[in-house]
Design a protein that fits this description.
Blueprint: H1 3-28, H2 33-47, H3 49-52, H4 59-84, E1 98-99, E2 103-104, H5 105-130
Antiparallel strand pairs: 1-2
Helix pairs in contact: 1-2, 2-4, 2-5, 4-5
């Protein structure tokens, strides 16, 4: 991977991580630095959807894939951050349909609209910051 590509991904991860920290502060009133790292990874993962699947894929399908991707990343991160390292950054054990208190259906569903917004923001940032192709979105 070239340095230019690494530079782009690092900048996008930092922006995505910062946005996630901001969203979490608005939602929960506090955050933890590890959420910036996890948010940045999720943002890059969501952005990579169009590099793996056709660009013409409807936005809602991309958002569903993003929701599933974020849920898997959240589970892995939760197992490392909360259980293995014992940092107790979040605990969904009081919410319905949770797995080890690290992921749950209510938050999984919340990742759907957030994934859609992240897809749009990711493409717009690549257009604005790196003069890449102007994004076009197909909802259905």
């Amino acid at each position: 991977m070239g340095m230019r590509k690494v530079f782009k991904l690092l900048h996008l991860a930092l922006i995505g991580g910062a946005f996630y920290l901001w969203i979490e502060i608005l939602w929960r009133g506090h955050t933890h630095w590890t959420m910036g790292v996890v948010g940045g990874l999720c943002f890059i993962g969501i952005g990579m959807i169009n590099h793996i699947f056709p660009y013409e894929m409807p936005l809602y399908v991309q958002a569903i894939i993003g929701m599933l991707l974020v849920t898997v990343i959240e589970l892995v991160a939760g197992l490392i951050i909360n259980i293995w390292l014992g940092l107790s950054v979040w605990d969904y054990s009081q919410l319905p349909f949770n797995i080890l208190g690290q992921i749950c259906v209510p938050y999984m569903l919340l990742w759907l609209p957030l994934s859609m917004m992240a897809i749009i923001l990711y493409r717009l940032l690549r257009y604005w910051l790196f003069n890449e192709a102007k994004p076009h979105f197909k909802l259905f």
